[in-house]
Amino acid sequence: MTAAAHRTETITGAVVLAVAAGFLAWAGGGELFPRGGYEVTASFPDVDGVEIGTEVRLAGVRIGRVSALSLNPETYMADARLTIPEGIVLPADSAALIQSDGLLGGAYIQIQPGGSPDNLAAGDEIEDVQGAVSLLHLMMKFVDSQASAGDAAQ
């Protein structure tokens, strides 16, 4: 093999590795090397569909991730630890809601900022929460209400 052929193979290999690294970064949500931040907690009655790595969004924009989930044995609530970037400051009375990405999509945690002049700090808890809503449970309620309305009409 000539020197030109070796050089071409080396350049081709470098391009393939760069493309593979790009796909890896894209698959990881664009965070090949995650940035630091601060953690806050939120205790939910139900975290169905939420897992470690689930997105935390503010105004529809991803601002963080769920870094840990655990069951609180005293309250029987699911404690979620949310990692928020240092540059994003949330009012102390912000709310955390578990939302669905659609009928078949996953879940994410939506932050609704409050109006408090005080801000959440590392280790603080978001107290205003709303757990996951089960689509199956809602459909069963609808079917049950339709059946009850049909029985009442007869």
Structural write-up:
With 154 residues, the chain is an alpha/beta fold. It folds into two domains: 1-33; 37-134, no CATH class. The chain contains two helices and eight strands; from the N terminus they run αββββββββα. The protein has helices at 3-27, 135-153; strands at residues 37-44, 55-58, 61-72, 77-85, 95-100, 107-112, 125-126, 128-130. An eight-stranded mixed β-sheet has the order 7-1-4-3-2-6-5-8, with no helix packed on it. The radius of gyration is 23 Å and the shape is extended. It comes from Paracoccus alcaliphilus.
Which terms summarize this structure?
154 residues; 2 domains; 8 strands; extended; Mce/MlaD
The outline comes out as extended
Provide a count of the helices: 2
Number of E-state strands: 8
The structural class is alpha/beta
Biggest sheet statistics: 8 strands, mixed
In sequence order, what are the helices and strands, one letter per element? HEEEEEEEEH
Protein name: Phospholipid/cholesterol/gamma-HCH transport system substrate-binding protein
InterPro entries: Mce/MlaD (IPR003399), MlaD_Phospholipid_Transporter (IPR052336)
Pfam family, one: MlaD
Domain Mce/MlaD: 37-114
Compile the SSE list and pairings.
Elements: H1 3-27, E1 37-44, E2 55-58, E3 61-72, E4 77-85, E5 95-100, E6 107-112, E7 125-126, E8 128-130, H2 135-153
Parallel strand pairs: 1-7, 2-6, 5-8
Antiparallel strand pairs: 1-4, 2-3, 3-4, 5-6
Protein name: Phospholipid/cholesterol/gamma-HCH transport system substrate-binding protein
Domain Mce/MlaD: 37-114
Pfam family, one: MlaD
